[in-house]
Design a protein that fits this description.
α1 (3-18) crosses α4 and α3 (81-91) crosses α4 (93-110). It is built from 11 helices and 16 strands. The protein is globular, with a radius of gyration of 22 Å. It is α+β, with helices and mostly antiparallel strands.
Length: 335
């Protein structure tokens, strides 16, 4: 099967086996530059997310699957088809089609409830408030995806406002919220983000690993000493995340989390985002934070990389910083 025939079969199989409308799938070849600003941003973001390099033309081929959500809301899911073709040549068509099948099954599961579109576009904030959550995203990798949506930028990442559709096939199903939607609800973006943070904290509580119990524990529901929750091999480092979500890094923004962590750490502390799920906590002057930041840059998958900066956390919240001096005793100064 040629590569062109393979692409056609992917689209046809999506229709024949899953009933997915072929008009909602679009193939973008390597070299595509876009014909408008949104397309050009799609090219840039796709290159960054899948190759790590910017460019004005696609550096690889993509198949994009779209999930329409009413009143102009469209969520896009993309896959790099050259990689799928390599899988087909080594393992067969079913193995190559598996990632697309999973995406389309998730899209289909999210479309089961015919009323959620109406709730979202009704203008009734009270109907939507309990379904709002926050997801953390790397800003550079999602610039085009964030156009027109509600988010707050912090350093080199954002806290994006999402509608929680459900947990289909054991995966979190969400859709970003447009600015015009929040305006229609009659609330400020700050209020919507604050409500969403509280929802996220309730649905996916902040967690740490408790050495006493040998299991993950809800951070805000128990009293911990530093010794209780330091990591096994690295005695001076704590790992903060959230339960039952792949977006646990947002937990550091939950109400009460930073003040409680400051109490445990004895004052302001450093935070390193290893990926979108895990935050490592260090003493304010611990140079190991720099080493782990470099490790995060090298080891994180492109789609899971959240931040390439150190952050200082104090009573005023979380601040992006850079190391400006490393002292002879190994401590660091952060601006």
């Amino acid at each position: 099967m040629t590569y062109e025939e393979f692409i056609d079969k992917l689209i046809q199989t999506a229709h024949d086996e899953l009933g997915f409308d072929p008009s909602r799938m679009e193939y973008y070849p390597e070299g595509y530059e876009g014909t408008n600003d949104r397309d050009r941003e799609f090219v840039r973001d796709s290159n960054l997310r899948y190759t790590g390099d910017e460019g004005t033309a696609l550096k690889t081929d993509f198949l994009v699957m779209k999930r329409p959500e009413g009143e102009g809301v469209v969520e896009q899911h993309r896959v790099a088809t050259r990689r799928l073709y390599e899988t087909y040549q080594k393992e067969g068509f079913e193995a190559a089609f598996k990632p697309i099948r999973e995406i389309l099954e998730d899209i289909k599961a999210a479309e089961i409830d015919p009323n959620w579109h109406k709730k979202r576009t009704s203008g009734d904030y009270e109907k939507m408030k309990e379904n709002l959550i926050i997801r953390p995203l790397n800003y550079s990798l999602h610039t085009a995806d964030l156009k027109g949506y509600v988010y707050r930028k912090i350093g080199d990442f954002v806290l994006a406002l999402y509608h929680r559709v459900g947990d289909a096939n054991h995966k979190l199903m969400t859709s970003k919220i447009f600015r015009w939607e929040v305006e229609k609800w009659g609330v400020s973006e700050d209020q919507a983000i604050q409500d969403a943070l509280e929802n996220t904290a309730r649905l996916y509580p902040a967690s740490v690993y408790d050495k006493r119990t040998q299991q993950e524990e809800k951070f805000m529901e128990k009293e911990f000493t530093r010794e209780d929750i330091t990591m096994h091999l690295l005695q001076d480092i704590l790992l903060l995340s959230a339960m039952n979500t792949p977006n646990g890094a947002v937990s550091i923004f939950y109400p009460g989390v930073i003040p409680k962590m400051m109490k445990i750490m004895g004052g302001p502390f450093q935070a390193v985002f290893m990926n979108i799920n895990d935050v490592l906590i260090f003493d304010r002057n611990d140079r190991n934070a720099v080493n782990f930041l470099n490790q995060a840059k090298e080891s994180s998958k492109l789609g899971e990389m959240l931040s390439s900066r150190l952050y200082l956390c104090d009573e005023d919240g979380l601040h992006p910083g850079t190391v400006v001096k490393v002292y002879s005793d190994g401590s660091v100064k952060i601006n």
